Amino acid sequence: MSDLHVVGVSGSLRSESRTRAAVETALAGAERAGASTEHLDLRRFDLPPLNPDLDEQGDAEEFRESVARGDAVVLGTPMYHGSCSGVLKNALDHCGFDELEGTTIGLLAVAGGAFPITALDHLRSICRAFNAWVLPYQAAVPRSESAIVDGEFADEDLRERVSTLGERTVAYGSIEPEPPTFESEQNEGG
């Protein structure tokens, strides 16, 4: 059994979100691997667009504390216009090195069409700027309308791939982080 705590963040505000269903599947995989889990649904947090001139905004402190409780994190995003969702990017903008540096992160992207590879690439770059340890294994759910029906995976192979993401997040959740990345050293803000 693992004593890791895995936090999942769904980067979708849609009420019938397939991204949320996929994150829950990844967290179920993490639980089967022995971790405790917590699903952070961005619909329940008031996270206005980040204004660095303000000390605190909305529920930013609560969100940061929730992310910091995770020994590892699964980030799930729908693919919007070839990238990750703006709400997920904004939520991550409210975080910093205190919450994510050295943290193992698993990436998951969901698309209505073909493979959401660019969304995964963009998330990987964002996470490396935090000097997080991003799993090489990632999960993509293409054609999600037929892959996830009524909140459940209709495609068993995809369900297994997403569940494996949760398992791998636990397996590598306590890995020693690498030296700081070039991206993290350039992460000074605007």
UniProtKB/TrEMBL annotation:
GO MF term list: oxidoreductase activity
Oxidoreductase as UniProt keyword: yes
Residue ranges of every copy of the NADPH-dependent FMN reductase-like domain listed in the record: 5-143
Annotated InterPro entries: Flavoprotein-like_sf (IPR029039), FMN_Rdtase-like_dom (IPR005025), NAD(P)H-dep_reductase (IPR050712)
Keyword Oxidoreductase: yes
Cofactor(s) for this UniProt protein: [4Fe-4S] cluster
EC number: 1.-.-.-
Top-rank lineage group of the source organism: Archaea
Membership in a protein family: Belongs to the SsuE family. Isf subfamily.
Protein name from the UniProt record: NADPH-dependent FMN reductase
UniProt source species: Halopenitus salinus
